[in-house]
């Protein structure tokens, strides 16, 4: 058995507007782990995108890896784990889902569990509570998923997303629990029918790779963005400026506060320059869809 593993997990964006808790997209922004067996546990964060102080027993990576090992009747061996992340915490770029997927893969490798891709989809989505970010980190590319009451995940997976994406990361955190607290408990029937139709059109447009139409439906969400917009710095201003500068559409990334635009790749350089000038208080990052999902090198 190999004694050292390199594990790479893409971050992700979820929802893309009306695809609430079901549509995800793996992004070329990564959580990378170097895992080495040793006689005691060390988890070392190589950047600021991780907790500065923590107890081992409360670290999400360790919690997940231990849980998965025990679930399969194995004892998790001690490891040294070096973690480097391009995913800021609590910003809507799938940082927790990436750690969950990494923890599952860590246990899979060091305990030789031989998990299938379907196992990883089910386990990560069950832990997350919904399959959007989790499936995107496992598979990469675009995922459209559902999870039944038994925690079984069914996913359409599409690669070769020939568009570029720009994320706008504000210098504030927004916990998913806080952003969910502003959502209404109930929606009336006619409103829900319109919201569902917009989600269907978004999914169909993405699967058809009609990104111009997908952009329109990204901006037509009725499930969550109308209620969360007030929590998001420069929400309306970013949407308006992005459209004026050539974006197909702009939406919250997950629960926010990060926002994401889908744009033609041909305008990427000029677009990013313009948006950086207009929103200097945000990190404006150009990225692409990840094509591979979780990867392991030994």
UniProtKB/TrEMBL annotation:
Subcellular location, record wording: Cytoplasm
Pathway(s) served: Amino-acid biosynthesis; L-threonine biosynthesis; L-threonine from L-aspartate: step 4/5
Major enzyme class: transferase
Principal place of residence: cytoplasm
Catalysed reactions, semicolon-separated: L-homoserine + ATP = O-phospho-L-homoserine + ADP + H(+)
InterPro entries to which the protein is assigned, alphabetical: GHMP_kinase_C_dom, GHMP_kinase_C_sf, GHMP_kinase_N_dom, GHMP_knse_ATP-bd_CS, Homoserine_kinase, Ribosomal_Su5_D2-typ_SF, Ribsml_uS5_D2-typ_fold_subgr
A single cellular component GO annotation: cytoplasm
E.C. code: 2.7.1.39
Domain GHMP kinase N-terminal: 60-141
Membrane-spanning residues: none
Pfam families: GHMP_kinases_C (PF08544), GHMP_kinases_N (PF00288)
Gene3D superfamilies, sorted: 3.30.230.10, GHMP kinase, C-terminal domain (3.30.70.890)
Annotated binding of ATP, by residue: 88-98
GO molecular function: ATP binding; homoserine kinase activity
Family matches, as HAMAP family: Homoser_kinase (MF_00384)
Biological role stated in the UniProt entry: Catalyzes the ATP-dependent phosphorylation of L-homoserine to L-homoserine phosphate.
Name listed for the protein in its UniProt record: Homoserine kinase
Lineage: Bacteria, Bacillati, Bacillota, Bacilli, Bacillales
Gene this chain is encoded by: thrB
């Amino acid at each position: 058995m190999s004694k050292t593993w390199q594990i790479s997990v893409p971050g992700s964006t979820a929802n893309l507007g009306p695809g609430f808790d079901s549509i995800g997209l793996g992004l070329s922004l990564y959580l990378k782990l170097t895992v080495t067996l040793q006689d005691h546990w060390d988890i070392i964060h190589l950047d600021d995108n991780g907790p500065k102080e923590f107890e081992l027993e409360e670290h999400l990576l360790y919690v997940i890896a231990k849980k998965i090992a025990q679930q399969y009747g194995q004892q998790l061996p001690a490891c040294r784990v070096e973690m480097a992340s391009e995913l800021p915490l609590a910003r809507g770029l799938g940082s927790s889902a990436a750690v969950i997927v990494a923890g599952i893969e860590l246990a899979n490798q060091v305990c030789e569990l031989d998990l299938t891709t379907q196992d990883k989809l089910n386990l990560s989505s069950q832990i997350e509570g919904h399959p959007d970010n989790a499936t995107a980190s496992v598979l990469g590319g675009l995922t459209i998923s559902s999870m039944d009451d038994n925690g079984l995940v069914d996913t359409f997976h599409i690669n070769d997303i020939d568009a570029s994406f720009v994320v706008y990361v504000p210098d504030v955190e927004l916990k998913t629990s806080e952003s969910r607290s502003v959502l209404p408990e109930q929606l009336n029937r006619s409103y829900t029918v319109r919201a569902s139709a917009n989600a269907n059109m978004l999914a169909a447009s993405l699967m058809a790779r009609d990104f111009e139409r997908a952009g329109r439906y990204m901006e037509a969400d009725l499930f969550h963005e109308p209620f969360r917009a007030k929590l998001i710095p420069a929400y309306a201003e970013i949407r308006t400026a992005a459209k004026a500068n050539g974006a197909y559409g702009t939406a919250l990334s997950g629960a926010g506060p990060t926002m994401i635009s889908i744009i033609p790749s041909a305008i990427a350089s000029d677009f990013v320059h313009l948006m950086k000038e207009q929103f200097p208080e945000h990190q404006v990052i150009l990225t692409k869809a990840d094509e591979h999902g979780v990867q392991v090198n030994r």
